[in-house]
Structures are given as structure tokens and as C-alpha cells.
Write a structure and sequence with these properties.
The chain is an all-alpha fold. It has one domain. The protein contains three helices and no strands.
Length: 43
């Protein structure tokens, strides 16, 4: 899965903060378990 953390490791992105919630770094764990925006969608 492409996330901002993955893109930063490839030097494609500078900012890793989740664009949906601006709360944490956008990685797979955040997207599926911690992001309030995606949690709302899954419910």
C-alpha cells in the first residue's frame, strides 16, 4: 500500500502527516487502525 511514509522513504514526499485527519503519520497502521476519518468510513 502506498502511504506518505513509504513515499518519504523513496524521497518522493516531504510531509508524512495524514491528509485526512492531520493527526499522525500516514502509514498502514494509522490508515487502518487509528485515523478517525477512515474509522468513521469503516463503521
Amino acid at each position: 500500500m502506498i502511504t506518505l511514509v513509504n513515499l518519504r522513504s523513496k524521497r518522493v514526499a516531504d510531509d508524512t502527516i495524514c491528509p485526512c485527519c492531520r493527526y499522525g503519520e500516514e502509514d498502514v497502521s494509522h490508515v487502518f487502525r487509528f485515523c478517525p476519518a477512515t474509522i468513521e468510513i469503516w463503521q
